[in-house]
Design a protein that fits this description.
By secondary structure, the chain is of the alpha+beta class. Among the domains are: 88 residues, no CATH class; 103 residues, no CATH class; 125 residues, Heat Shock Protein 90. Helix 6 packs parallel to helix 8, helix 13 runs antiparallel to helix 14 and helix 20 packs antiparallel against helix 21. It has 28 helices and 7 strands. Keywords: Kinase, Membrane, Transferase, Transmembrane, Transmembrane helix. GO terms for molecular function: kinase activity. This is Sensory transduction histidine kinase.
């Protein structure tokens, strides 16, 4: 019981697994948007989306991070682990977020294992998906932090064991089997003495890498099966679980035995959406061992909906090209080459092997040798420092360690009891809140729907009234007012249709331009280019911004394109930084007089634009640039709140 509680506090892999399970109960697409917006610091969009989500522990984690409400290192670990595994997210962006947002703990009395686990995960990901040099840089930061604490403390020992996995991988790359295997066995023994099952699994995994270099296939299989047995004793699997399954599949396929076990493990990988891509190279390797008339080969073809080995290889290449990291995609290409060769497609096999060579050059550049050389020098210096410290430092801290561990266990036990009580109360409150939120959401949608209808009724009345107006100025004013009402009605229509409470301004502006073009009967002679970069705004920003665009486009049709053939209009909205955006409207018309001033304009349209720009805490600039160019720098709702 004690060991399991210590392990729970030491490694947050369990909580990450729980957060991953928790995601299954949320809308994955919306949750991915929230995570991406946090990663990109688009906090205005986060505030709208996160308020609509069901109150769960992981949503509470995201709220603490987004609001900067004293999030813990375990909160950050859950977030970066989830977002790093999301489709379309570069780990370089995740690593930059970690370095920019998460500071090193300043408490030097006790090591923070949550922070250690976070940095260890960053080092591993950078080593696998970026460069070794970047991984070395973060490894140095991690080791510098661990070095602050007493090396004889149990938690410091665990932190050092975890950090040593980077050295094990680099020794493997250097093919230094003797040192790497010795270090691996030594660390495995320490993990066993500590009774830490998760650390034992980690070092069994790396020990398998050295067994395979030595060609000890039997030991390789035994260690992998032992690791899976240990996994089955844990309440949640470690991050090495899938890697161990892949180890076993490699071994059994290479050995050509136990095909039932191979099919069982392949099916396990393929059946899970988040590991399916990792099964592609292993299926290709398995196909290499099957005969052309094998029923098992036909079974694989049926599973992937192909009819030949060549079609199979093309399909897994297509599936993995843009989603797998370079190392995993290399294995897909390499195993596809072998499968093609074994089934007589020699020319295609050579083509796939050429792709492997090109990809390998990208993965292992000239920087690799420099990184390894730098790593060797640092390791030699560290080894000398450790030797000096062992000679000069002797302290009897075992009683203190035992007291700390006992206190930690007691605190943990009390915390778990309180947490269980709080969870029960939270479930009841969440149920009540969720019901209230649903009712409020329906009410808000109905309000937007009715506002939209009211705007449309007024616009229709203006349209009817305009038919009896003979004065051109009055008629123009009525038409412009009708168009303004339609732009506002369109905002509320978008809000009524959107479940998340945000307006996709790209879709909105295109529909608005179509309305304005139809009104001026100039759709065929004006070439309109819209660049809004898929931006989302709430109603407090979208409504005045939509009216501004309506006025500027209407003015362009009235003054720029009235006598212009082949008119061109560019509308661009770009994010600058920290909640600031720039709207640019550029036409190829005759331009404006040099003495013209937007602030002193007597026209109703530009006066309205000036007021709306002030409402957005923005600035307005008008100048000639082969036509009239209007630039408006404005702020979103979140930035405006900060100023207020």
């Amino acid at each position: 019981m004690k060991d399991s509680l210590v392990s729970l506090l030491c490694f947050f892999i369990i909580s990450v697994s729980l957060s991953s399970q928790e995601k299954l109960y949320l809308n994955d697409s919306v949750l991915h948007k929230i995570e991406t917006f946090i990663l990109k610091d688009q906090l205005d969009s986060v505030s709208v989306l996160i308020a609509k989500q069901k109150q769960t522990p992981y949503i509470e984690v995201l709220k603490r991070i987004y609001r900067k409400d004293n999030p813990s290192y375990s909160d950050y670990y859950k977030f970066v682990s989830n977002v790093a595994n999301s489709p379309g997210v570069s780990y370089g962006d995740v690593s930059n977020y970690i370095n920019k947002t998460i500071n090193t703990p300043q408490n030097y009395n006790k090591i923070n294992l949550d922070y250690v686990t976070l940095k260890w995960s960053q080092v591993s990901k950078l080593r696998d998906e970026a460069t070794i040099e970047e991984a070395n840089t973060e490894q140095d930061k991690l080791e510098a932090y661990i070095k602050r604490f007493n090396p004889n403390d149990v938690n410091t020992i665990k932190a050092n064991l975890l950090a040593s996995t980077h050295q094990l991988v680099l020794l493997q790359i250097q093919n230094d089997v003797k040192r790497g295997k010795a270090l691996c066995l030594e660390n495995l023994k320490k993990a066993d003495e500590l009774g830490d099952t998760r650390l034992k699994i980690i070092f069994l995994y790396h020990l398998c890498d050295y067994y395979i270099i030595e060609g000890k296939l039997t030991e390789y299989i035994q260690a992998s099966e032992q690791s899976l047995e240990l996994e089955n004793t844990l309440p949640t699997k470690t991050s090495y679980y899938i890697g161990t399954i892949i180890h076993l599949l490699d071994a059994y396929i290479y050995k050509g035995s136990n095909k039932k076990r191979v099919e069982e493990l392949l099916s396990l990988l393929y059946s899970k959406q988040d590991t399916r891509q990792l099964s592609y190279s292993l299926y290709a390797k398995y196909i290499s061992t099957l005969g052309a008339d094998s029923s098992k080969l036909q079974s694989v073809f049926k599973q992937f909906e192909v009819s030949s080995v060549l079609e199979f290889c093309k399909k897994i290449e297509s599936l993995g090209e843009n989603t797998l990291n370079p190392n995993d995609f290399f294995h897909v290409l390499n195993e596809s080459s072998r499968a093609l060769a074994s089934h007589g497609f020699l020319n295609e096999a050579i083509r796939y092997k050429d792709k492997c060579i090109v990809l390998t050059r990208k993965i292992y550049s000239e920087d690799l040798s420099q990184s390894l050389s730098s790593f060797k020098t640092k390791q030699a210096v560290k080894a000398k420092e450790v030797e000096i410290e062992r000679v000069t430092e002797r302290s009897n801290l075992y009683i203190v360690i035992a007291t700390l561990v006992a206190s930690l266990l007691l605190i943990t036990f009390v915390f778990l009891i309180r947490k269980r009580k709080q969870s029960r109360l939270l479930e009841i409150k969440n149920s009540q809140i969720n019901q209230a939120l649903k009712e409020k959401e329906l009410l808000v949608k109905e309000v937007h729907h009715r506002v939209k209808n009211n705007f449309q009724i007024i616009a229709s009345l203006l349209e009817l009234q305009a038919k009896s107006i003979t004065d051109e100025k009055a008629l123009a004013f009525a038409n412009e007012s009708k168009n303004r009402l339609k732009s506002m009605a369109l905002i509320h229509q978008k809000l009524y249709q959107d479940k998340e409470g945000l307006i996709n301004f790209d879709q909105y502006i295109r529909q608005l331009i179509n309305e304005v073009s139809a009104l001026h009967n100039s759709k065929d002679k004006v070439d309109i280019h819209i660049f809004t970069n898929n931006l989302f705004f709430d109603i407090d920003t979208a409504l005045p911004l939509g009216l501004i665009v309506n006025e500027l486009v209407t003015n362009a049709y009235k003054y720029a394109f009235s006598n212009t053939i082949n008119g061109v209009l560019h509308i661009t909205i770009n994010k600058i930084n920290n909640g600031k955006y720039k709207l640019t409207v550029l036409d190829n018309g005759p331009g404006i007089p040099n003495e013209y001033s937007a602030k002193s304009s007597e026209g109703f349209g530009l006066n309205l634009v000036n007021r709306l720009v002030k409402q957005l805490n923005g600035t307005l600039s008008i100048y000639n640039n082969n036509g009239t160019c209007i630039e408006i720098v404005f702020q979103d709702k979140n930035a405006r709140k900060t100023i207020d």
